[in-house]
Specification:
single chain; alpha+beta; Rossmann fold; SH3 type barrels; 3 domains; 4-stranded mixed sheet; 10 helices; about 25% helix; globular
Length: about 375
């Protein structure tokens, strides 16, 4: 079963497997209702009718079945409610990672079982291998497209049945493969990088529509500096994220960034770029893939704190269900609610959700 979004990557993944002799079934997941997310906007991107039709056309042209899997209810109940809940808690959510971890793979595997599919495949740029009884995710060959960061939360059971056909290919090769097979429309089709249920990139507007009376509940908070001095008023703490510089609506004569969200006091802390840096962080809700357990040992890693992060050297130490992460040179804009992923070379050791950060070195 191939998860097909209608885009070039998942379509080429399906084509490759079909040409390799696999019996392929295409599956496109309907995760949300566009009209409820961005009313009045043109329906585009994944989950749109055009994308579903594009995926189906590939399947028809190659002669394999295609189905639509409606997971709007479970997606909305879990991913979207978590998204709004995290902002209301003063954190910055990562819904795409959460969807991969808790929704898509489980939904695909349940349907795969019903259709007697042995494996599921996606168009992610990542690799997977079995080593010492563990299924290990590693980076895709194309560093610019690598998506291993978004896959850390997939269980070992799910990984045992997962294939990433594009892992050892570059995007340029994928485009050429599509052209060679007569799928020119896939090459010229624009790719969507927005959150699927916030296609206009206006998460503030989405929160206001999703949570009635939100503006009245959070209005009147203060912008404060690191020393606690008040320098202005903000529009509501859920409308800001750690690391934000633009759209603050305040001028202090020098660049300032959001360094902390204090939900209980309805305050947004501002600081200089240097004040964004933290020495470490705590990460919870861990999922380890390369190793079953770190048994209290410290490991040298490269750790990413956001999707487009290049990663920074860090020492990690597992204490129960929490990972202590120590950055040798500090890292800026660590946002609670985002995913942290730990790498050993190209391999994903595991990951979790950032709960808090700290400045001083904690023993």
């Amino acid at each position: 079963m191939v998860a097909m979004s209608g885009g070039i990557d998942s379509s080429v993944a399906a084509v490759m497997l079909h040409e390799q002799g696999y019996e392929v079934i295409g599956m496109t997941m309907k995760t949300w209702d566009y009209a409820s997310s961005a009313p009045g906007k043109k329906e585009t991107g994944c989950c749109s009718l055009d994308s579903i039709n594009d995926a189906r056309n590939i399947a028809v042209n190659l002669g394999f079945p295609h189905y639509i899997l409606d997971i709007r209810e479970e997606f909305g109940d879990f991913v979207i409610n978590h998204f709004t809940g995290e902002y209301l808690a003063g954190r910055t959510p990562n819904p795409c990672v959460l969807c991969n971890t808790h929704i898509k793979w489980d939904a695909l595997l349940r349907r795969a079982d019903k259709l007697d599919c042995e494996f599921i495949a996606t168009g992610h740029y990542a690799n997977i291998r079995e080593e010492a009884g563990r299924y290990v995710i590693s980076k895709g060959l194309d560093e610019n497209k690598d998506q291993s960061y978004a896959l850390w939360g997939i269980s070992q059971e799910s990984l045992s049945r997962t294939m990433y056909p594009l892992g050892n290919l570059r995007k340029t090769e994928i485009r050429q493969m599509a052209m060679d097979r007569g799928f020119k429309e896939l090459v010229t089709k624009s790719e969507s990088y927005e959150i699927c249920f916030v296609p206009d990139n206006d998460y503030r507007g989405f929160l206001k529509r999703r949570v009635p009376g939100l503006e009245e509940k959070v209005v009147g908070g203060e912008f404060v500096l690191e020393d606690g001095s008040v320098v202005g008023n903000h529009e509501g703490y859920p409308f800001y994220t750690v690391g934000q510089r633009k759209g603050l609506g305040i001028a202090l004569g020098y660049p300032v960034y959001v360094t902390e969200i204090q939900k209980e006091d309805n305050k947004v802390v501002l600081g200089t770029f240097d004040e964004l840096f933290r020495d470490g962080m705590y990460v919870n809700s861990l999922n380890l893939s390369k190793y079953a357990d770190l048994n209290g040992q410290r490991l040298d890693t490269i750790t990413k704190v956001r999707y487009n992060d290049k990663g920074a050297p860090a020492v990690i130490e597992q204490v129960g269900d929490t990972m202590k992460v120590f950055f040798g040179n500090g890292v800026n804009a660590i946002a609670p609610g985002q995913a942290a992923v730990f790498y050993e070379g190209d391999d994903v050791i595991g990951g979790g959700w950032i709960s808090s950060s700290f400045r001083q070195h904690v023993q």
